[in-house]
UniProtKB/TrEMBL annotation:
Protein's recorded name: Peptidase C45 hydrolase domain-containing protein
Sequence ranges assigned to domain Peptidase C45 hydrolase in this UniProt record: 128-292
PANTHER family in the cross-refs: BETA-ALANYL-DOPAMINE_CARCININE HYDROLASE (PTHR34180:SF1), PEPTIDASE C45 (PTHR34180)
Domain of life: Eukaryota
InterPro entries found in the cross-reference section: Peptidase_C45 (IPR047801), Peptidase_C45_hydrolase (IPR005079)
A Pfam family reported for this protein in Swiss-Prot or TrEMBL: AAT
Length: 309
């Protein structure tokens, strides 16, 4: 993708490749983002107060071993990327493992404190784009030691088209669950895919009716944690207009509910940035700050190789 920078100082972009190995790729990423990785480890309260103490107990060892073995066997090159990132940033492999498998580990941490978090990201190629966010299956729906959601999401970056992406998701063997929005840039087609352990999956095509998805299952029939934060955001979104680009950005920037706003400013949960994928203009725009202010930081152009075909 081509890129057009509006404010390069705020959003670091690192382009590299091809790399001789997954380890080398991870090492270069870790080296480039050492400051950000160490800052995350130092300030992430879930990591510091729950994951790290749990990892030091005998109780955690069978789970950590099974996660390591299953994910290294299924995705050896991605596991090497993780090892390389740890080496490049000078942090412990265990620390990065705990961050990457937090959703797969937290259900088994003794419940002295209950923490729910929002997880949302976007990735694009010239043919397929996808966004994703976490969903909260109940504990008895989780398979200990399965494949981690972050490794599955990493594998989606290798998908060549919508069908390939669906195949990778269907056969993933996930430990927990996830929600994906798959976007076929050429065909202008969007699928919402909800997943759970034991390769359970539900696919909903998004058509003319606007679709909003908080951190909760909407169409896969599964027992899930009742999260008031997600329920409130889902209800609030249903009340807001969703017809124009401005409507959608205003919705994503809504702070009307002071307890559970759609746009979060802390102190526990934060909206880091907003991504807007425009299938008419074939662009991916990154907005830092409240999206209803429409202050675009960077624009990625997704059409260069499409138009050349």
């Amino acid at each position: 993708m081509e890129t057009s920078s509006m404010e390069e100082k705020n959003l670091p972009v690192f382009e590299l490749g091809p790399c001789e190995s997954g380890y080398n790729l991870g090492f270069l990423v870790g080296q480039r983002f050492t400051k950000q990785i160490r800052s995350r480890l130092a300030t992430d309260l879930i990591f510091q107060n729950q994951l790290l103490p749990f990892a030091k107990t005998q109780q955690s060892q069978p789970l950590l071993r099974s996660l390591s073995d299953a994910n290294r066997e299924r995705f050896p090159s991605y596991w090497d990327e993780l090892l390389g990132t740890a080496e490049g940033s000078g942090v412990a492999v265990l620390d990065l493992m705990l961050l990457n498998f937090r959703k797969e580990i937290l259900p088994f941490v003794p419940k002295t404190t209950v923490s729910l978090e929002v997880d949302h990201a976007e990735d694009c190629s010239d043919v397929l784009a996808f966004t994703l966010n976490s969903v909260p299956p109940s504990e008895d729906e989780i398979v200990a030691g399965g494949i981690g959601r972050n490794f599955i999401s990493r594998d989606l970056l290798e998908a060549t088209n919508m069908d390939d992406a669906l195949t990778r998701i269907r056969s993933s063997g996930a430990s927990v669950g996830h929600s994906y929005n798959l976007i076929d840039i050429r065909a202008r087609r969007i699928l919402n895919v909800e997943t759970a352990s034991r390769n359970r999956i539900s696919v909903r095509e998004v058509q003319e009716t606007p679709f909003f998805h908080a951190n909760m299952y909407l169409h896969l029939q599964i027992q899930q944690v009742q999260d008031e934060n997600s329920l409130s955001r889902q209800k609030r979104a249903a009340l807001l207009p969703k017809q124009t680009k401005t409507d959608f950005l205003s919705l994503l920037g809504d702070t009307d509910d002071k307890t559970y706003p759609i746009y979060m400013k802390g102190p526990t949960l934060y909206t880091l940035c907003t991504a807007l994928i425009d299938l008419d203009e074939k662009t991916l725009s990154i907005i830092e700050g409240n999206p209803k202010e429409r202050q675009v930081t960077r624009i990625f152009l997704m059409s260069s190789r499409i138009n050349a075909d």
